[in-house]
Amino acid sequence: MTPPSDVAGINAANVTSWMLQRVPDLAEPLHFELITGGLSNLTYNVADAAGRRWVLRRPPLGHVLATAHDMGREFRIITALSDTPVPVAPVTGYCDDIDVNDAPFYVMNFVDGVIARNAEAGSELSVEARANAGNSLIHVLATIHDIDVDAVGLGDLGRKESYVERQLSRWQRQWESTKDSDVPEMTELHCRLSEAVPKQGPATIVHGDYRLDNCIVDVDGNVIAVLDWELCTLGDPMADLGFMFVYWAEANDSFVVIDGSATALEGFPTRQQLLASYESLTHRDVSQIGYYVALGYWKLACILQGVLVRYRSGAMGDQSTDTESGATPVQRLAVAGLAAFEGQIGGANV
User: Fold this and answer.
1) Model pTM?
2) What is the number of domains present in the chain?
3) CA 60-64-70 angle, 5° bins
4) For residue 298, is it within any domain?
5) Contacts of 83 (CB under 8 A, 6+ apart)
6) Best CA proximity match to 215, nearest among 111, 319, 299
7) Phi, psi (deg, nearest 5) at residue 141
8) Domain end (from 86, 109, 132)
9) How many CA atoms lie within 13 A of 302 on its CB side?
10) Three-class SS of residue 32?
């Protein structure tokens, strides 16, 4: 049977042929659908005629960082973690032949559950499940940070030392290469971050984009798959916790940087509760969490600027976005980062 017409970023005929070699009893034709909500790598639902489902990940269509969007690296990480307590989606295969789909890609099994991208999705969970989701999120993060990287074959994934310094250098390069106007708050925030880098403890896996909506949870709130490993490396585990708090809104926050967060719903733990849970589970010093939240805001601002550039160039396929153009959203993130240095997130204490 003839495959359906191609969607942006997918050569349906070639990908179908590739899948036929790896999936027993694949029922043609395959249907491809771009999953909305992703702001970096492109992610697609893939379904065969029998109703079986997979997920395909590939880089944006153009204008990407030379070291970013490495599909082989992301596939390697997920494969290495598949035999550990860290919940990841089972992988189907990886393709580095650009003649197949114009760019490397990998395919993993579809994991059925809830991705709480916003309040509407979070409302699918009961109040009790929301409480459990927050607790599960922290337990899984602690598990990630407890993995013996050498034992799972990831000891050479990246440099273990000077993680924050490397992040400041990497994302500052992206900011300088993509900014379309000067944002004084970004300059001030980068200076403050550079002048106050905390001493790093033992290196762990750092997911790099760890947050509730990069996880799939079941109806009881248990995290059953951690997604989006493209920024994963080795380094300072506190950076994951700080970045998670950037996205963790509370109902009483006096200002909101990221609108419509599920975590503001009744039932989700507070930031203080999550911080205490992480400290209890890992026995790590969390006293400088404000620094790592500030780093998270600054990093997100740098990423957002790159995303805006890619949208303007058409590199994100057929997706649309209501993200504002210009420096305004970046400036808001930078202001929030400066507030985090004073221990404030959303206008409230961490």
Assistant:
1) 0.90
2) 2
3) 75
4) yes
5) 152
6) 111
7) -60, -45
8) 109
9) 23
10) strand
